[in-house]
Design brief:
This protein is of the alpha/beta class. The protein has 15 helices and 13 strands. Helix content is 46%, strand content 12%.
Length: 503
């Protein structure tokens, strides 16, 4: 066969049609992705049987959102990337294990069909019905399936809430999620060293000691929160106000808006676990902590710089801000250095430039972090985070609603008077949600990223946040070790900052 025959055959050989695979699992407790791997394998076998080639994007050859819910308003980055690929017309099929992997709400399925219909894209499922938006019956079946999946998710949430309530009323200990300070993970075995701190702290509060002083004492003894963070006043106060340490079982009923708020917590009976602090003494502690005259404005040894105590010298010890006179006169030179209490090589670094460099890193990291998704992931094992995630979701919905109202009145589709009434309701609810998020975020139980869950703009939030809030975010996100500088160097070198991201 000559070269012309070879060229002709290559040019006329039909191309394999292209498809994409989407996998998702709401909660991957092991973190190993076994569930999505099985979904992918089944989808690949089906695509191969149909004669389709699997394509992806620059990130991966499949689109996978692991441990993300499709029922809550959680941003799914790989689902968005799949939609982008559909919009370009590069694929004609999407393979999924079942259609509820794509979405569990009717409105999301309808949006997906609107995107697929003009491009002739269909969805094929390993189990159950697929989606053919060009077919009238297909659209009807998909809508029905979406409604069923949505109802199933709602019923599942109701069953979980009912199980939590039943457990509370029966006095069973809290299991799963983050360990409560003072107890082991089973929620009933007392951890002696932490329990001793709580008992002493309860008496200290009754004797008039400040929460700040108690927190400082715990830090000096080397104790941390169950997340591994430094102890602060909010953590100590939250622990001492928790009825659980007095052996009392609690339940958070829903309010008029269907939300479970910490301030609505009710004591429903005695728990089956042993108390760390006797109920009578715990009641006395509550009387002191709830006393409105108990106000302290003392600053004490509160850090005055962003990275003081957070930055680590290469010797492993924390670095603190110091100053020294400049040879040229003028303002004193501000720098971070350790206390040189352990043998080894020590370093120092300019505080102003270091603060600015770390702030830039944090802001960039926060821009790339899906805060709603982070909260929702925490919500899977943490009741407190679940409340924050739900408030964040509702806030996003209200912001979208506000935009819709403004567009409607601008287009003349809504009367100004009606707009005023509707926008007033939206703004009132937004204000209530922002207050609730702020209250929950101030608690030691709140994940640090909850601090900015309601922020529309990371830079704006950071610029308006006080120092302690910024420090909490830095401590949550990263560990920074300062390396040695070049001898005789006059300029700040950001490469000396060796950052390890925690989240």
């Amino acid at each position: 066969m000559d070269s012309s025959d070879s060229d002709f055959n290559a040019a006329t050989m039909p191309r394999m049609p292209s498809a994409a695979i989407y996998t998702r699992i709401s909660l991957d407790r092991s973190g190993e992705g076994v569930g999505v791997e099985r979904q992918e394998e089944a989808c690949r076998r089906l695509a191969e049987l149909h004669g389709y080639t699997i394509v992806g994007d620059a990130v991966s050859d499949i689109f996978c959102d692991n441990s993300l819910s499709a029922y809550k308003d959680v941003d799914r980055p790989r689902y968005r990337a799949l939609c982008d690929l559909i919009e370009t017309g590069e694929i004609t099929r999407v393979y999924v294990y079942s259609t509820d992997r794509l979405a569990r709400r009717t409105r999301d399925l309808l949006d997906l069909m609107d995107l697929m219909r003009p491009r002739g894209v269909t969805v094929h499922a390993v189990t159950g019905e697929g989606i053919d938006p060009a077919s009238a019956n297909g659209a009807l079946i998909t809508t029905i399936l979406g409604a069923v999946a949505e109802q199933e998710s709602a019923h599942k949430a109701e069953r979980i809430r009912a199980a939590y309530e039943q457990r509370a009323h029966s006095g069973k200990p809290k299991t799963g999620g983050r360990r409560l300070f003072g107890y082991e993970r089973d929620g009933e075995t007392i951890r002696d060293d932490e329990a001793a701190l709580l008992r002493k702290a309860a008496q200290q509060v009754i004797d008039g000691d400040s929460i700040r002083a108690i927190a400082a004492e715990w830090n000096d003894k080397g104790f941390t929160s169950t997340r591994g963070n430094a102890v602060d006043s909010a953590m100590v106060r939250s622990l001492l106000k928790n009825p659980y340490i007095a052996g009392l079982s609690t339940w958070n009923p829903t309010d008029a808006d269907g939300r479970r708020l910490l301030r609505n917590r009710e004591i429903v009976g005695e728990g089956s676990w042993p108390a760390i602090v006797e109920p009578d003494q715990w009641e006395r502690v509550q009387a002191v902590l709830n006393d409105p005259t108990r106000v302290s404005n003392k600053i004490g040894n509160t850090p005055q710089r962003l990275l003081s105590g957070l930055l680590l010298c290469q010797c492993g010890q924390p670095m603190y801000r110091r100053t020294r006179p400049r040879k040229s006169g003028g303002d004193r030179y501000s720098y971070y250095s350790c206390k040189r209490v352990v043998p080894g090589k020590h370093v120092h670094i300019g505080s102003d430039d270091t603060d600015a460099a770390v702030e830039a890193l944090v802001i960039e990291r926060l821009k790339r972090t899906d805060l709603a998704a982070a909260l929702a992931a925490a919500a899977a094992t943490d009741d407190h985070s679940a409340e924050l995630a739900e408030l964040t979701r509702e806030r996003s919905d209200l912001l979208a609603r506000r935009d819709e109202l403004e567009e409607a009145v601008a287009d003349g589709a809504m009367a100004v008077q009606a707009f005023g009434r509707a926008i007033a309701r939206v703004e009132a609810r937004l204000a209530a949600i922002d207050e609730a998020i702020a209250t929950l975020s101030a608690s030691a139980d709140a994940p640090p990223l909850a601090e900015i869950a309601a922020a529309e703009n990371v830079e704006v939030w950071w610029a308006g946040a006080d120092l302690m809030r910024r420090r909490r975010i830095v401590d949550h996100l990263m560990t920074i070790v300062v390396g040695p500088g070049k001898h005789g160097a006059k300029r700040f070198d950001p490469h000396r900052l060796n950052v390890t991201w925690k989240h």
